[in-house]
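Sequence of LysR family transcriptional regulator (Modicisalibacter zincidurans).
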Amino acid sequence: MEGPLGQVSDFDIRLLRIFKAVAESGGFTAAEVSLGIGRSAISVHMADLEKRLGLRLCQRGRGGFALTEEGREVYQAALTLLASLETFRTEVNGLHQTLRGEFSIGITDNLVSLPRMRITHALADLKARGPDVRLNIHMTPPDEIARAVLDGRLQLGVVPDVNRLASLEVRPLYSERSLLYCADAHPLFGVDEAQLNETCLARQPAVVPGYPLPGEARERIERLDGQATASDREGAAFLILTGCFIGYLPDHLARPWIEAGRLRALAPERERFATDFVTVTRRGRRPHRVLEAFLEALAAQDREADEHSETG
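Predicted 3D structure, token representation.
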């Protein structure tokens, strides 16, 4: 048979805290200071608790204050309950301080060579805050990254800002510049800059991207004689380095071969375009503490970069 006390409410817990203070103070009057309420209010609360429990918890009168046998048992049970609540509060608060779980991120190829390594630094900050977080990096084409973010396989993607989907939240990240290159074995490598007009370049076999590009880039690539395709920028670099093709590469990707004398930028003042990169997350997603912590770290990187640019 069920007792008089059903589900324990917030009000019951408040009454038990008052009862605990009364029991430990040794009476209603002595508990006034610790509780910050008057004796009459304490008396009302104690009467409410006794009625709620169906038990007499204390004797009070000319003989002084004393707990009944039931009162002593309720006091011990209250200590256990309140200690459990404190343990629960401590553990939940600890979850906000300690990050756990997996974080899966999809990144377009060859962004690691960007001088502004905000993704790298933000991942380092995330790992410092949550050493137990498991990081999973997937290097895949932009369209596949977008699909994986939408179906939940990835928490975040880094992609070119092309063909935005309404179901994705987009945050600006950074911009990269691409120039037109040839390798040292290509006939144009030693040609004077003045001869590299659009007609000359349009006659050269070129590698064209098979991945999404901004409108300005598509216009420039359409002028080239596309005789090869590449699914990513690394593939384009492979083909350009054969000396058989010209093609566009991000300048940060081309830099090592430039410095080694293997690549040359062709008409760089004219043959160039910019690609903006963004992070994408699923709109209306469920709360994900690790993802939010990463976005906070990324925002901190942005603020730091802005401060450096203002003082630089």
